[in-house]
Design goal:
The protein is of the alpha/beta class and 277 residues long. It contains 10 helices and 12 strands. The protein has 2 domains: 130 residues, Rossmann fold, CATH 3.40.50.10860; 140 residues, NAD(P)-binding Rossmann-like Domain (Rossmann fold, 3-Layer(aba) Sandwich), CATH 3.40.50.720. Bound molecules: 2'-monophosphoadenosine-5'-diphosphate (ATR). 2'-monophosphoadenosine-5'-diphosphate binds next to helix 5.
Length: 277
């Protein structure tokens, strides 16, 4: 019998992960299947123990379980520990190891789209939740030299500023008004909040009046493919990057952790775009 992989989340009905991973297994010739498991929050512990009991080879973990699964794992990779969340579990002969490929997936997509070094760019992160922490951690481990964080609730940016201290990266929290006023100081602006996500597609997390033309504006959102933030940025002449690349890369990195081979990311991207219609 082939290996079984899965997704632990709630809800998981609209997940694109089964399609892209099952296609990659077929394509590469790995005898395995990937199934989305809808796990109610009260059953997270049982679900993780179930991975061992049923000898499931590996899992992705999504909302709302990325933090909750951690205490039931045997080992947490350094990056996932810094982020404080796990999106990938590898079952290594009964030992469950947690990784986080979200942030790295984003950084990879940013580097690929820009085709240049990020280290000396001035970056502004919008948001301070779990997604922001993943992106911030990966950017700092990559070696950026400065990070600004803005958030509706500014105090919530403090833990990311603290993390930056640990990783010896200069970072500061700036309130929304200040960020908007000095927006032309930033080379890369990254929205990690859900503001602008379908169905609230007219919402924007930040006013882009002072955006510089050479700026790059990224949105982790991929539904819609082009958020209002990206539409406005494009109109201003900026380069824009949506969340599809990050989604594909995090999946490809998980696949590598499980199988030791890299899947065809162009195929993955095609499937994602087809499914998003
Ligand atoms: P995720 O894991 O997707 O990051 P999260 O941890 O719940 O989710 O974080 C949500 C982020 O989106 C936060 O930065 C949140 O801002 P607050 O810390 O002020 O709550 C931001 N966010 C969500 N809805 C928002 C809204 N309507 N306006 C501005 N920011 C919003």
């Amino acid at each position: 019998m082939g290996k079984v992989f899965g997704l632990l989340g709630h809800p998981v009905g609209h997940s694109m992960s089964p399609n892209i991973h099952n296609d990659a297994f077929n394509q590469i010739g790995i005898e395995a299947t990937y199934h989305a498991f809808d796990v109610e929050p009260e059953f997270v512990k049982e679900a993780v123990h179930g991975i061992r009991a049923l000898q499931i080879a590996g899992c992705n973990v999504t909302v709302p379980h990325k933090v909750a699964v951690m205490e039931y794992l045997d080992e947490i990779d350094e990056e996932a520990r810094l982020i404080g969340a796990v999106n990938t579990i590898v079952n290594q002969n009964g030992k469950l190891i947690g990784y986080n490929t979200d942030g790295r997936g984003f950084v990879q997509s940013l580097i690929e789209e820009l085709n240049e070094d990020l280290k000396d760019k001035r970056l502004l992160l919008i948001g301070a939740g779990g997604a922001a922490r993943g992106v911030a951690t990966a950017l700092m481990l990559y070696g950026i030299r400065h990070l600004a964080i803005t958030n509706r609730t500014i105090e919530k940016a403090d833990p990311i500023v603290q993390l930056a201290k640990t990783l010896k990266t200069p970072a500061e929290a700036v309130d929304r008004a200040q960020a908007e006023k000095s927006l032309d100081e930033y080379d890369v602006i990254i929205n990690t909040t859900s503001v602008g996500m379908s169905p609230n597609i007219e919402d924007m997390p930040l006013d882009l009046g002072n955006l510089k033309r050479e700026a790059v504006v990224c949105d982790l959102i991929y539904n819609p493919l082009e958020t209002k933030l990206l539409k406005v940025a494009k109109k201003e002449g900026a380069t824009t990057i949506n969340g599809v690349g990050m989604f594909v890369n995090q999946a490809a990195l998980s696949f590598e952790h499980w199988n030791g081979v890299t899947p065809d990311r162009n195929r993955m991207r095609k499937i994602v775009l087809e499914q998003l219609g």
